[in-house]
Amino acid sequence: MVVGVYIVSKQNKKAKMVVTWKDNFILSNIWPTFGSPEIFVMSQWQRDKQTPSYLYVLLRVAIFLTFFTIWILSYTMESSSNKPKWPLYLTNWGLTVCTIQSFLSSLMLICAILGTNVLDNSELTQSALKAYKTYWITNSMATTIAFTISFVYWTLIHQPEYWSIMNFMVHGMNAILMIIDFCAVAHPVRFLHFVYPVGLAFVYVTMTAIFYACGGTAKNGDQFIYPILKWSTPGITVAYCIAIMILIFFIHTLTFFLYKGKVKIAELCFGEPESDSFSDTAMQML
């Protein structure tokens, strides 16, 4: 009898796991909707998931201020002739998205702290949490794009003679900050959200093709922004673009599994349930 109960329990557990993983691929999960927006102002590592942590808000504000400083310096340190070409580079697109998502996160957290712990005003907290969808999209883009930019730059583009602190800040520190961000947040990473960073990359690639067709030049006078985006050889360039899209998908998938691992570690440490349980999709959706 005990053996029979054990077998049934094991089968039920296996069936539940299959259902859970299938739910990761439900098309409705593309949309940035979640049943408990409060999770977007919580850290994975705080025991009390009912109120925002002061330590966590300090971390998020510090990340935002660092991103904002790098973003400002990346533009102001350009020569006057190169400033108009600052928006041409994917590095700066990624840095901008990182800065936007860190600003939105800090804003939501500060409002949640004020509304919950200081003013006792739940309406302030709820109003701030309305930004979670925009934040979630930008965070999904920022995390994957930051990792992709750093990987591609240091493996394919970097030339040692052009080393500088600013170069490291925009191509290395961005990924470091997003790793810290990824480790700290409690909100989920959804597999189907790969469409957001891939979509951003597609828009950028389209822009570079239009830029070339219009006769634009990069900061150094080249007719291409990056060596791997030479539209004078469209076949090779398209192949590179497809490879980059696949890399973005792979990095997002890796991030998704790292998120699952992070949640399991948190469960072992605190005994808390997974923050993005896909076993009840209806409970997630607003």
TrEMBL record:
The keyword rRNA processing does not apply. The keyword Transmembrane helix applies. The chain crosses the membrane at residues 54-73, 93-114, 135-156, 162-184, 191-213, 233-259. InterPro entries: Rost. It holds the Pfam family Rost. PANTHER family: HEADBUTT, ISOFORM E (PTHR12242:SF49), OS02G0130600 PROTEIN-RELATED (PTHR12242). This is Protein rolling stone. GO terms for cellular component: membrane. The lineage of its organism: Eukaryota, Metazoa, Ecdysozoa, Arthropoda, Hexapoda. It comes from Dendroctonus ponderosae (Mountain pine beetle). Keywords: Membrane, Transmembrane, Transmembrane helix.
